[in-house]
Protein backbone atom coordinates (compact mmCIF):
# COMPACT_ATOMS: atom_id res chain seq x y z
CA UNK A 1 0.00 0.00 0.00
CA UNK A 2 1.23 3.49 -0.86
CA UNK A 3 2.08 5.79 2.02
CA UNK A 4 2.48 9.07 0.16
CA UNK A 5 0.53 10.85 -2.51
CA UNK A 6 3.35 12.43 -4.51
CA UNK A 7 3.63 13.45 -8.16
CA UNK A 8 4.64 9.96 -9.29
CA UNK A 9 1.69 8.36 -7.49
CA UNK A 10 -0.70 11.04 -8.82
CA UNK A 11 0.49 10.49 -12.38
CA UNK A 12 0.02 6.73 -11.94
CA UNK A 13 -3.52 7.26 -10.66
CA UNK A 14 -4.37 9.46 -13.63
CA UNK A 15 -2.80 7.19 -16.26
CA UNK A 16 -4.57 4.11 -14.86
CA UNK A 17 -7.90 5.95 -14.50
CA UNK A 18 -7.71 7.04 -18.13
CA UNK A 19 -6.67 3.54 -19.24
CA UNK A 20 -9.71 2.20 -17.39
CA UNK A 21 -11.90 4.75 -19.15
CA UNK A 22 -10.60 3.68 -22.55
CA UNK A 23 -11.09 -0.02 -21.68
CA UNK A 24 -14.72 0.79 -20.81
CA UNK A 25 -15.22 2.89 -23.94
CA UNK A 26 -16.16 5.77 -21.63
CA UNK A 27 -16.68 9.29 -22.87
CA UNK A 28 -13.50 11.43 -22.63
CA UNK A 29 -12.60 12.19 -19.02
CA UNK A 30 -10.79 14.80 -17.00
CA UNK A 31 -9.05 13.55 -13.86
CA UNK A 32 -7.41 15.57 -11.09
CA UNK A 33 -5.48 14.57 -7.98
CA UNK A 34 -5.44 16.97 -5.01
CA UNK A 35 -3.21 16.86 -1.94
CA UNK A 36 -4.68 16.99 1.58
CA UNK A 37 -4.74 20.80 1.42
CA UNK A 38 -6.81 20.80 -1.76
CA UNK A 39 -3.93 21.80 -4.05
CA UNK A 40 -3.57 20.10 -7.45
CA UNK A 41 -0.74 17.60 -7.74
CA UNK A 42 -1.54 16.50 -11.30
CA UNK A 43 -4.41 16.55 -13.76
CA UNK A 44 -5.27 15.58 -17.30
CA UNK A 45 -8.12 16.22 -19.72
CA UNK A 46 -8.49 13.74 -22.54
CA UNK A 47 -8.90 14.89 -26.12
CA UNK A 48 -12.58 15.43 -26.72
CA UNK A 49 -13.50 16.14 -23.09
CA UNK A 50 -15.41 19.40 -22.81
CA UNK A 51 -13.65 22.37 -21.23
CA UNK A 52 -15.81 22.23 -18.07
CA UNK A 53 -14.89 18.63 -17.24
CA UNK A 54 -11.70 19.57 -15.41
CA UNK A 55 -13.54 22.05 -13.17
CA UNK A 56 -16.26 19.48 -12.46
CA UNK A 57 -13.62 16.86 -11.60
CA UNK A 58 -11.95 19.37 -9.28
CA UNK A 59 -15.30 20.19 -7.63
CA UNK A 60 -15.83 16.47 -6.99
CA UNK A 61 -12.34 16.07 -5.52
CA UNK A 62 -12.67 19.23 -3.39
CA UNK A 63 -16.11 18.20 -2.15
CA UNK A 64 -14.84 14.81 -1.03
CA UNK A 65 -11.83 16.38 0.66
CA UNK A 66 -13.76 19.21 2.27
CA UNK A 67 -16.52 16.99 3.65
CA UNK A 68 -14.35 13.96 4.47
CA UNK A 69 -16.31 11.46 2.37
CA UNK A 70 -16.49 10.20 -1.20
CA UNK A 71 -18.97 12.14 -3.32
CA UNK A 72 -21.18 9.05 -3.74
CA UNK A 73 -21.76 9.19 0.02
CA UNK A 74 -22.23 12.97 -0.04
CA UNK A 75 -24.83 12.68 -2.80
CA UNK A 76 -26.82 10.26 -0.65
CA UNK A 77 -26.53 12.52 2.40
CA UNK A 78 -27.60 15.56 0.34
CA UNK A 79 -30.87 13.85 -0.56
CA UNK A 80 -31.85 13.86 3.12
CA UNK A 81 -30.61 17.33 3.95
CA UNK A 82 -30.65 19.43 0.75
CA UNK A 83 -30.73 22.83 2.47
CA UNK A 84 -27.53 22.11 4.41
CA UNK A 85 -25.68 20.80 1.37
CA UNK A 86 -26.85 23.72 -0.77
CA UNK A 87 -25.54 26.04 1.95
CA UNK A 88 -22.18 24.24 1.95
CA UNK A 89 -21.94 24.55 -1.83
CA UNK A 90 -22.71 28.29 -1.57
CA UNK A 91 -20.14 28.72 1.22
CA UNK A 92 -17.53 27.09 -1.02
CA UNK A 93 -18.39 29.30 -3.96
CA UNK A 94 -20.07 26.43 -5.79
CA UNK A 95 -16.82 24.46 -5.83
CA UNK A 96 -18.42 21.17 -4.79
CA UNK A 97 -20.18 18.55 -6.91
CA UNK A 98 -22.54 15.93 -5.48
CA UNK A 99 -22.06 13.17 -8.03
CA UNK A 100 -19.98 9.99 -7.80
CA UNK A 101 -16.44 10.44 -9.05
CA UNK A 102 -14.79 12.24 -6.12
CA UNK A 103 -12.84 9.77 -3.97
CA UNK A 104 -10.65 10.27 -0.91
CA UNK A 105 -7.13 8.86 -0.92
CA UNK A 106 -6.14 7.35 2.40
CA UNK A 107 -2.82 6.25 3.83
CA UNK A 108 -2.05 3.15 5.92
CA UNK A 109 -3.79 4.30 9.13
CA UNK A 110 -6.72 5.87 7.31
CA UNK A 111 -5.09 9.31 7.19
CA UNK A 112 -6.51 11.36 4.32
CA UNK A 113 -3.68 12.06 1.88
CA UNK A 114 -5.79 13.83 -0.72
CA UNK A 115 -8.53 13.10 -3.21
CA UNK A 116 -9.16 12.30 -6.85
CA UNK A 117 -11.96 13.59 -9.03
CA UNK A 118 -13.06 12.52 -12.50
CA UNK A 119 -15.75 13.80 -14.83
CA UNK A 120 -16.86 13.05 -18.35
CA UNK A 121 -19.07 9.97 -18.28
CA UNK A 122 -21.71 8.88 -15.78
CA UNK A 123 -20.86 9.38 -12.12
CA UNK A 124 -20.68 5.62 -11.67
CA UNK A 125 -18.21 5.25 -14.52
CA UNK A 126 -16.16 8.24 -13.32
CA UNK A 127 -15.91 6.67 -9.86
CA UNK A 128 -15.00 3.24 -11.23
CA UNK A 129 -12.18 4.76 -13.27
CA UNK A 130 -10.86 6.67 -10.24
CA UNK A 131 -10.97 3.51 -8.14
CA UNK A 132 -9.06 1.60 -10.83
CA UNK A 133 -6.45 4.36 -10.84
CA UNK A 134 -6.09 4.30 -7.07
CA UNK A 135 -5.69 0.52 -7.01
CA UNK A 136 -3.06 0.69 -9.78
CA UNK A 137 -1.07 3.18 -7.68
CA UNK A 138 -1.23 0.92 -4.64
CA UNK A 139 -3.86 2.71 -2.58
CA UNK A 140 -6.31 0.46 -0.71
CA UNK A 141 -9.69 2.12 -1.10
CA UNK A 142 -11.68 -0.34 0.99
CA UNK A 143 -10.94 1.97 3.93
CA UNK A 144 -13.02 4.80 2.43
CA UNK A 145 -16.31 2.98 2.16
Keywords:
145 residues, Beta-Lactamase, four-stranded antiparallel sheet, 5 helices, 46% helix
Task: Write up what this structure looks like.
InterPro entries: GlcG_carb_metab_protein, PduO/GlcC-like, PduO/GlcC-like_sf. 46% of the residues lie in helices and 17% in strands. It has 145 residues and is of the alpha+beta class. It has a single domain, classed as Beta-Lactamase, CATH 3.30.450.150. The chain has a four-stranded antiparallel beta sheet. A hairpin with a 4-residue loop joins strand 1 and strand 2. Helix 1 crosses helix 5 and helix 3 packs across helix 4. The longest helix has 17 residues. The radius of gyration is 14 Å and the shape is globular. The two termini are 17 Å apart.
What's this, in brief?
The protein is α+β, with helices and mostly antiparallel strands and 145 residues long.
Which residues sit in consecutive blocks of at least 5 with pLDDT less than 50? none
Percent in strands = 15-25%
Helical stretch count?
5
How many domains in all? 1
CATH topology heading: Beta-Lactamase
Level-2 CATH architecture: 2-Layer Sandwich
**CA gyration radius, whole angstroms:** 14 Å
Mean pLDDT: 93
> Tell me, what is the CATH class?
Alpha Beta
What is the terminal separation in angstroms?
17 Å
**Helix-strand category:** alpha+beta
Tell me the number of strands: 4
Q: Please state the overall shape, judged from the principal axes of the Cα atoms.
A: globular
With strands numbered from the N-terminus, the spatial order across the biggest sheet is 2-1-4-3
Helix percentage: 40-55%
* CATH level-four homologous superfamily name: Haem-degrading domain
Reported for the largest beta sheet, the result is: 4 strands, antiparallel
What is the N-to-C succession of helices and strands? HEEHHHEEH
Amino acid sequence: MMATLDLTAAQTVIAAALASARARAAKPLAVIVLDAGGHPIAFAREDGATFARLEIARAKAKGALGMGADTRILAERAKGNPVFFQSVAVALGGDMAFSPGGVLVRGPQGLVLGSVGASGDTGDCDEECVTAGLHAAGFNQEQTR
